[in-house]
Amino acid sequence: FFFSPAEFVKSATNLSMIPDNTMIPEVAFVGRSNIGKSSLINGLVNRNGLVKTSSKPGHTRMMNFFKLGDKLSLVDMPGYGWKSRDEWGGMIISYLQNRKNLKRIYILVDPSHGLKESDTQIMKLLDSSGLSYQVVLTKMDRLSKTKYSAAKAEIEAELVKGAICCFPLVLGVSSKTKDGLDELRAAIVKAGQL
Ligand code: GTP
Ligand code: MG
User: Fold this and answer.
1) pLDDT confidence of 82, banded at 50, 70, 90?
2) What does the alpha-carbon distance between residue 38 and residue 147 come to, in Å, rounded to a whole number?
């Protein structure tokens, strides 16, 4: 599959700036600040430095659109917990609810920290809007296999209880070691019917 070469399309700070490429299937990455969204996009397209990352939370301030030819559009988001809820909410929620070519939303969660209230809030919103999302556990390299499995099981149990539009398979990735990236690429291909 063609996860490279990827190109930067546009940054958007308001809805009118969002690219009009609605014929291209799109997936978006959301999650708390510093969870590894931007690093994951670099990993998926195998190009470090396409998206700027930082050890300081709150690095990504705009919605950034990337594309892989005319096949797939990837969207990096500011983390929640950085912008105020209303500010994050205003533009991004409206984008999520209205984007016609948005095939799936990937919610990134740190398995060392588990699901936070900000994660469950966004899941409720997506459930009430009937939007398909899938949970991706990041920074797998930081946990032993045993700890990772236990954390994953706990998160899966919470999802079974509460989440409606959640894709049942929880994926795990490390942008550092590249573990899990192939599985996530395959999931994106399926989600986008590519
Ligand atoms: P914001 O833009 O602030 O919302 O953050 P983000 O979610 O885009 O996170 P970013 O990709 O910038 O990564 C945050 C920090 O986590 C950086 O220091 C990364 O190097 C580190 N990081 C990202 N992915 C991994 C990973 O898989 N393993 C490890 N060990 N560190 C990672
Ligand atoms: Mg970022």
Assistant:
1) low
2) 25
pLDDT digits (tens, 9 = 90+) for 114-137: 999 999 999 999 999 999 999 999
- The answer to ipTM > 0.85 is yes
Ligand nearest to the CA of 30: 1
DSSP 4: -
Q: Which domains does the chain have, with CATH numbers?
A: 6-191 (3.40.50.300)
Asked if residue 62 has pLDDT above 60, the reply is yes
Name which of 105, 102, 74 is nearest 2 in CA terms.
Answer: 74
Token output for 167: 């894709």
Residue 178 Cβ inside 6 Å of ligand 1? The answer reads no
CA distance 21 to 152: 35
**29, two tokens:** 């990455």
Strands 102-109 and 133-137: parallel
Q: Is 64 in the pocket of ligand 1 (CB under 6 A)?
A: no
